[in-house]
């Protein structure tokens, strides 16, 4: 008899402790961060998107030094599959130290922009540039064609694209990039604690939703409330995929700056590998409206693409220059932001949050839940 | 839509669902029988002093109906939609507030 009573007491105590802290309005807003995963749609500008042979070849090439002119690097040297497709270096090391932090390559399918400054409007273009960039793989079109012809992948390559010898070197470059892109499209982060919380709220199952830790719930309330994070980090990827100034200094040295979106647009508008160009395989040129109608503005200077926050706990250090070592440092950065230092004139979004230690810990618990398997 | 100009021809705006950071279109109808020589569409977020990152594309559909494509609101909050028209030499501006969650 006594045992039974104790058991009932324990259950009750548990029920009292775990509850959903969100208001009805906040619950509605929560739904906009899912569902996850996003349903996959193949890329109309890449005729080998979602093709199993191309995915397999892309995966092999990604991990093979054949894509660098002297065999010194692979894509995986910087985008290490064992480290969430990045490394722990603040700034990437190629032939020299690059100016920017290496982004993780997950959840990239179907975005409008790629790169910190948005210099590419397709995943295949974003996969093409590193092959020929002098500080990265440093191939020329010609050396790449020779390298692929002489590699052990030539049969797979020709099975997909036909005889390589009759292909112009530029076509070989684009075809290679499209296999890499087909592979990268398959990389996605899995479902998380947050997704179970969100789906439980959608199904009005408050008991299940209450399993989401209260610290993470409070952190999420800050994220969509007083913290204003949701202004830029929104939607299922926690990013609007546009360009903003998050108050990170953009000086590379005393005399040089990273011009961010400004340089990204200059690059985009002066190169052939866009969705409006001849290398897109989409006869309808869907998606080309973006490069055709994007506006340039002096406030692009020193802005960077809002990063997705899915899986963010696995990809320290943070920001375009890798200058913040962990999530705690990022939250403190936003909490103490020096508005005098915001350079992109105009955007009056960020302000000093003056978070308490408790609030900092709550926000961190929420951000970490975007990486935790349920 | 509202205008500060007195006796401005009426302009009606129709929008389907607007999804955050996704492109959408709007339909503009000039309700009065006037000759329309120009229609331009833009939007700003008054609180953040910034506008649209993409230039809307205007198509005249006939019968004083116009469609604006490639509209994209990249942040939640209050957006002020602006339509600048020219009715046979007379420039008139209209605004309408849209709140995006």
Q: How large is the count of helical segments of chain A?
A: 15
State the share of residues found in helices of chain A, binned by percent: 25-40%
Question: Greatest interface and its residue counts?
Answer: A-B, 22 and 20 residues
User: What order do the strands of the largest sheet of chain A run in, or round the barrel if closed?
Assistant: 1-2
Distance from N terminus to C terminus of chain A (CA atoms, Å) equals 36 Å
Which topology of chain B does CATH recognise? Answer: Immunoglobulin-like
* Mean pLDDT, all residues of chain A: 93
The CATH fourth-level homologous superfamily of the largest domain in chain A: Cytochrome c-like domain
Q: How many helices of chain B does DSSP assign?
A: 0
What would the CATH topology of the largest domain in chain A be?
Cytochrome Bc1 Complex, Chain D, domain 2
Q: Can you identify the CATH superfamily of chain B?
A: Macroglobulin (MG2) domain
CATH architecture of chain B: Sandwich
What form of chain B results from the Cα inertia axes? globular
Based on CA atoms alone, the radius of gyration of chain B comes out at 13 Å
% residues in beta strands of chain B: over 45%
EC number (chain A): 1.11.1.5
Main location (chain A): periplasm
Binding site for heme c 2 (chain A): 229, 232-233
Domain Cytochrome c (chain A): 53-217, 214-371
